[in-house]
Amino acid sequence: MRGRRGRGWGRVGRGERDVVARGARLYEAARSVAGDHGRAVEAVRAALKPIHDAEVQRELDAIPVSRLQDVTEGRLRLGSVEKSGLRTVGQVLEAGPYRLRQIPGVGQRTVDQILAAARRLSEAAHETVAVHIDVDRPEPRTTALVRALHVLVEAGPDTRRAVDTANDMAGRLGPLLAAAKPAAGRFRMLFAGQDTKARALSAVAEIRTLSGEAGQAGVPGLLAQASVDLLRGPSTDVAAWVDFELRSAEYYSLLAEISGRVPDAAASEGFLPDEIAERVRTQHLDDTHRRVSLRGYQAFGARFALAQRKVILGDEMGLGKTIQAIAALTHLAAEGQSHFMVVCPASVLVNWTREIEARSTLRAMLIHGPDRHDAFADWKGRGGVGVTTFDALRGFPAPGGGEVGMLVVDEAHSVKNPKALRSQAVAQWTERCDRTLFMTGTPMENRVAEFRNLVRMLDRGVAESLGERDALAGSVAFRKAVAPVYLRRNQADVLTELPSLQQTDEWETLSASDEEAYREAVRAGNFMAMRRAAYMRPKKSAKLERLRELVQEAGESGQKTVVFSNFKDVLRVVGEALTAGPADRIPVLGPLTGSVPAGRRQQVVDDFAAVSGPAVLLAQIQAAGVGLNMQAASVVIICEPQIKPTIEHQAVARAHRMGQVRPVSVHRLLATGGVDERMVKMLEDKTRLFDAYARISAVAEATPDAVDVSDTEMARRIIEEEQARLGVTDERPVQPEQP
């Protein structure tokens, strides 16, 4: 009997030991991921500290000793201190109490007051000084920081999920493994007391359940991949710098999070009333279907859309409204919603589909053009994110209640007129959808009548309570009145780093008129004419329409814009389009071309900077891309892709440089299906290579053309491919043409 009982315990013990062993392996994997992530974070902090300390010291060395009077409300007498040669706060702190006490006429009490005041300024500097990573002058300390950040940025949002899972798993498994310890050995279990044995068996059961759930959810694979990602560094310093240039916003966001330098909470939450802000904060945000990390204010914006259900997101241009919308859609998809609709101007249809595909796992369905009704039927049957235009929406039946998880309306100020058919169509869809997100970068605070029309589609009660007096009472009263449905943040309030560079490819579908002009250029074998065909018939130009929208949106936010093109006649067309219209239009200066004397060019730039409020500067990219500082502009529009990566880089660098006080948004206007798309594809690898060289000035200066594409070779290849695609030929040889 005793032997059989022993063998029975042995059989049970083996099963229990296997369960405990599996749990222990999962626990160690979780701890390993958490540890790897912790070490990666500490590496960033270690690299950041000397840079931050140096910036703080530089700040203190620039503060005159007289500022100590302000801190102590004028109680200090600092004449003797200044005469002793200590002229800055930094020098006072470095001198310390002993040297200060040696200054004639300075007693111990004064020394204590001086140092206390100086330390207060030092503490303030530590809290407020931001680290700027200068891509134009990389040096060992900043390179170390970029490399440390690169590990976490490259690991991406999946690693963030893995770390959260690892911390949760380790926290739950740790106590269970301790309780199950007797079951890990045969003899321990045999000699354990009844209570200990019961606790051990209970813990084993919980470990079995937890391990099983983790296995079904793919947690072991997630943790293993995270460990690999966290231990993988950039191949070279140059690779890290190139990635930083391409994704600087992600680097700065991570840097702010790790350093604890986050935006003012009230500003990042749009100064919402406490009760609404708290409701939004507690809204869960699922990132299962999302492929991009969010900044804090962006996560709050997505939560606002989910918690409040029908809202207007009015963030200033450049803060990522599209990303916030996608975050809300992916959350709803994780909850089981299958159908979503995005309504936007035709000019941004392609942008939306590309952003959805790049930033999420959701299916994007373009519902536009002659086959739009077939596409709509396909979307209804299969689900996904339908992307359509205001005009096309009018031809589709409004959904039944609960069919569409969320309706997103981009450039929502386009439907502010309730009498317009497009507005009526959007209103009908909004009524049938449980959640609606209107998006507009156009400030609405001073347009109460128009704003009320938008709000009425979302919440009639808020609209009726919103009167002219709310706007007249000031922004605080206005925000409180519209808080249930309206969230707006400004760049200056939520971006804690020095200016970042945000680059957007604006893909446009050519109009029929554009296509006709383009086909003629292809038939003639004229490469330069192909590149500018999209502007040669201004009345129906898709690119020109998008350019007007971008300039208008920048103007509404008080921003200045510089428009670059390789071609003088394109700049002429742009200038005529922007100067036609109402008398209060945005001032347009230029164009700056190669025929403008150098001295005059600088005067034009100075005049542009001197304009109070928004303005537009037209500039030929080769003539104005080098030597002129245009940091007055925070929006850059490039009318067509350039043949050499150096040209675009130098042009953008005119605005994105030291002295710029706002993040720079770069918009490159591109047409689908033709020369622009072929050029972009050919230049992708060359651009990355150029960025690598450009970060090392000595190499860039020694080999300026090392990474440029041959103009003639590119032109010939593209002309041949486009003539074949369009079925047109011309025997005339390719002729170079002056811009």
From TrEMBL:
Q: Look up keyword Hydrolase and say if it applies.
A: yes
Under the heading InterPro entries, the entry gives:
Helicase_ATP-bd, Helicase_C-like, SNF2/RAD54-like_C, SNF2_N
Chain ranges of the Helicase C-terminal domain: 546-739
Q: Would you say which domain of life the source belongs to?
A: Bacteria
Matching SMART domains: DEXDc (SM00487), HELICc (SM00490)
Keywords (alphabetical) are:
ATP-binding, Helicase, Hydrolase, Nucleotide-binding
Annotated ranges, domain Helicase ATP-binding: 302-461
Q: Name one GO molecular function term.
A: helicase activity
Give one Pfam family: SNF2-rel_dom
The protein's name in its UniProt record: DEAD/DEAH box helicase
